[in-house]
């Protein structure tokens, strides 16, 4: 039982990971971050679960995909 955690853009380079599976199912998105990295979560990081934006207190279930990424800007 686990979830897949993905990092995108600059986070991928900072964390040094593109994708990792958690050792257990974390209760929330924030706990997923804490299971896979020893770094504090930057304030502006966004999260999605199964391709939908969520808050960091969003509950997780076995098999979920969690994605962390910086805000997207364009011009």
From TrEMBL:
Any one GO molecular function term: nucleotide binding
Database matches in PANTHER family: MOLYBDOPTERIN SYNTHASE SULFUR CARRIER SUBUNIT
A single Gene Ontology CC term: molybdopterin adenylyltransferase complex
Keywords: Nucleotide-binding
Pfam families cross-referenced by the UniProt entry: ThiS
Record's protein name: Molybdopterin synthase sulfur carrier subunit
One GO BP: Mo-molybdopterin cofactor biosynthetic process
Species, as recorded: Halothiobacillus diazotrophicus
Family: Belongs to the MoaD family.
CDD domains xref list: Ubl_MoaD (cd00754)
InterPro entries assigned: Beta-grasp_dom_sf (IPR012675), MOCS2A (IPR044672), Mopterin_synth/thiamin_S_b (IPR016155), ThiS/MoaD-like (IPR003749)
């Amino acid at each position: 039982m686990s979830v897949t955690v993905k990092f995108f853009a600059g986070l991928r380079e900072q964390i040094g990971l593109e994708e990792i599976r958690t050792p257990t199912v974390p209760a929330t998105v924030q706990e997923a971050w804490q299971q896979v990295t020893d770094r504090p979560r930057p304030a502006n990081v966004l999260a999605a679960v199964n391709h939908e934006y969520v808050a960091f207190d969003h509950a997780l279930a076995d098999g979920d995909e969690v994605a962390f990424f910086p805000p997207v800007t364009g011009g």
